Amino acid sequence: MRKLVLASLVVATSLAGCASVRDSRANPFNWFGQSQSVAVAPAESDVNTLIPERRAFFGKRDAPPYPGGLVEQVTEMHVRQLAGGALVEVTGVLTSIEGYDVRLLPLEDADPATLSYEFRAIQPRYGAGVGPARARTVTAAIRLTDQELAGVRTIRVVAQGNIRTAAR
């Protein structure tokens, strides 16, 4: 019993001395001090630093400009609703059966309620492979997200001979 009373007396005395150790350098919790908040000037550009400027691992150079010309005519255009956006599918007729690499390239439009695209394909300069319209028919599509479609009322596709539009 005496040992128990003596041990509890030693523990109580040592705990009372902890108040002086709390603020000393011997306490590991005091080694780095308190954290402080410092105001930072806002960044001047709207560049997201988490998105890399180059996408390739070894610093791939920028692609050369697309050499394709306008497709002769847009024959069909469908806007299909998808989860999270829409799919714009465009069918057209080339000037030659030797055309390839068909693309829908965005155009800058003055009206923010209109999305404009050029329907382009790489085609030979001279119409060497002229054939029936069925053989010269090509299709291209582009997926648009809900964010890209916000506020858009009209989608417009420009070809060499005509313009097709789809409105909401």
Q: What's the topology here?
A:
Layout: H1 2-16, H2 18-22, E1 69-70, E2 73-82, E3 85-93, E4 100-107, E5 114-122, E6 137-145, H3 146-149, E7 154-158, E8 163-167
Parallel strand pairs: 5-7
Antiparallel strand pairs: 1-5, 2-3, 3-6, 4-5, 7-8
Any overview of this molecule?
The chain has 168 residues and is an alpha+beta fold. The protein is 14% helix and 34% strand. The protein contains 3 helices and 8 strands, in the order H-H-E-E-E-E-E-E-H-E-E. Strands 1, 4, 5, 7 and 8 form a 5-stranded mixed β-sheet that branches. The chain has a 3-stranded antiparallel β-sheet with strand order 2-3-6. Strand 2 and strand 3 form a beta hairpin. The longest helix has 15 residues, at 2-16. The chain is rod-shaped, with a radius of gyration of 35 Å.
